[in-house]
What does this fold into?
Amino acid sequence: MPIILNGLAIFRREDRGRPPRIAGVVTGPTVLVRLVMRIFEGIEVHPGVRDARDEFEGVMVLTLAERSSLIAPSATLAMAGEAKRLKSEGVDVLDFALGEPDFNTPENIQEAAIRAMKAGHTHYTPPAGIPELKQALAEHYTKKIGLPTQPAQILISNGAKHSIHNALMAVCGPGDEVIIPAPYWVSYADLVKLTGAVPVVVETTEEEGFKLSPEKFLAAVTPRTRLLMINSPSNPTGVVYDRAELEALADAVLTTKAGVLSDEIYEQLTYGDAKPTCFATLRPGLAERTITISGVSKTYAMTGWRIGWAIAPAPVAKFMGDLQSQETSNPCSVSQYAALEAVVGPQDSVRAMLGEFTKRRAYVLERIERLPGVTCVPPGGAFYAFMNVSSHFGRTLGGRKIEDSTSFCVTALASAHVAMVMGSAFGTEGYARLSFATDLKTLERGFDALEGFLKG
Ligand SMILES: Cc1ncc(COP(=O)(O)O)c(C=O)c1O
It folds into this structure.
């Protein structure tokens, strides 16, 4: 019987007076625990394991390691899961919670996967990835991105998230600090904590365009700083740093001993004048201290295939490969051949998807303008609008008092059936993230519902 040492145990109401079955367990920041408590209103929640243990007198209690208190389930997935649950009950949910393209993986990539299976590429591969994909990426980065790269510097993983985990495990440990500008992608802080290092969150504001300045970075640096994590284009804000801003940050980094993890997963999804910049290329000496992260999930609508990569100094890449060999052996063989086709094959489907995202972004910005009391820094990339909804805090909407971004998003879902993710999950209170990786018709219905919700 699973039970936890830290956090909350959830029991089913119908088990009252009988040996209880645990329906779920919640650990992590208060915000998330409160979210789960609100979502599962029909379920009894017991705070603290001591209470739970009292209830369990005579029942064997298997405790989790201390590490379990470091990890919270992804709030994005929690909101998406709740949206899915409502859908399964027949509710017409307008789902803008999850960050994945709604397009199917392009045909040529699917065909490549089928060919790979038929050719017998269904076995273990080298732990750090197939040589063909590493070679293709080395050429891509060297020739197209301007980052001279050898195959030995590349690690192919089960998604970019796995590459980030491996990178953090390779360079961070107890006592180290990792600087993370907020708003940040939900997983960064927890992945850092898993290594024993401490996330040092540096707030950026809407007025600053949600960009970390060299001054703020330098103010956060201590002798224990191991890494700065940056993400441009950003999830959740869509903000894209321009080259000069990144150069200024790079110059500041070079005055310290900090390394950089540059998450460039949305590099091919930028709009208008916004241009992606590969951080490691900006100054001599940066590549030696930077780990670049990317992958096929977002650009090629391949979230389910689970292929991402890291480009790092060769000794770091070697350790990440060794680590991966013990953790997962290798990324899925068939998916690697599909990713190879994605990287070297025709790119017209990428252009077509970007065209669609461009139209949706324009529509979303036009509709946000019309939402009462809502502002938004126009996203230069990715497919998110990070909306400032704080002017509605203190109001009663959908029959509930709105106190914060969690109550805003939970109530918008319950009452208007619009699923978004609360800003607090990204380290910034006052906002709601809306993903526009959804067709225009659904966006139109979603904004109609949201507008009605906000008008009370
Ligand atoms: C900023 C950022 N980095 C990394 C990832 C993980 O990508 P993957 O699905 O390839 O693991 C995501 C996915 O949402 C993301 O938004």
Summary: Residues 1-21, 26-30, 42-58 have pLDDT under 50 and may be disordered. The first strand starts at residue 8 and ends at 11. The chain has three domains: 8-70, 75-99+349-454, 124-344.
